[in-house]
Amino acid sequence: MLNGIYLNINWQSLLIGDEDWTFLWEVMLRTIIMTVMIVLALRVLGKRGVKQLSIFELVVIISFGSAAGDPMIYKEIGILSAILVFIVIISVYRLIMYFIGKSKTVENMMEGQPICLIREGRFSIKNFKKELLGSQELLSELRLKGVSQLGQVQTAIEEISGDISVFFYEDEEVKYGLPIMPDDEDKAVQQFDIEAYYSCSFCGYTAVKNSLSSLVCEHCESSEWIPSSNRKRVN
Fold it and tell me: What phi and psi, each to the nearest 5 degrees, are found at residue 6?
């Protein structure tokens, strides 16, 4: 009873829907069959990990899951229909992979291509905007690789898997660059009181600035600067 109203709950309908209890055994059998089908289908994709999969391959995996899910629990959907869907998905996958191997244009269209995000200690702003990658997300990835300021980074590339590859300067080649530790943003300056290296907080451009220097960045027109760091990377 809830607030004086009796609740009449049909437990069988709540637990198994419109089917009877005997259908649960069929669900178990359907699930086993479709699980085996998924495992066999994924063998076509090879042994790459999830982080190594391209967008195209992720779409194929999602399609497998969608094709397998409904036959597991819906009586009106037969196993043969799902198997046919699997065969079609695998055939299309193998066909596209064939064309990917034959054409660089098709490969770039289906799997994308690596994008340079940092070059010589500065953000590649044009490429950065294409990837819809948040700056804080990238900075977090860099910190996980031991980077504390951009002058340590020669090149950073976003691979087609989404991983970030980072190539570093040797310690003796490390330059002044934009510091990327969480509390460094609090050190932003409104004017250049002393002559020193400063980095644009938006694009990472770094140069010596003094009281006569303009606050407007000559590369991105941002006007927020942070004192640069030439800290070496800690391995």
Answer: -80, 135
Q: Residue 162 burial (CB < 10 Å; 0-12/13-18/19+)?
A: middle
pLDDT by residue (tens digit) across 66-102? Answer: 888 888 877 778 888 888 888 888 888 888 888 888 8
- Band (196; pLDDT cuts 50, 70, 90): very high
Is-contact 187 226, C-beta < 8 A? yes
- The pTM assigned to this predicted structure is 0.65
CA distance 125 to 161: 21
Question: What are the extents of the domains in the chain?
Answer: 11-109, 115-227
CATH classification (class only), 115-227: alpha beta
Handedness of CA 56, 62, 65, 69 (dihedral sign): negative
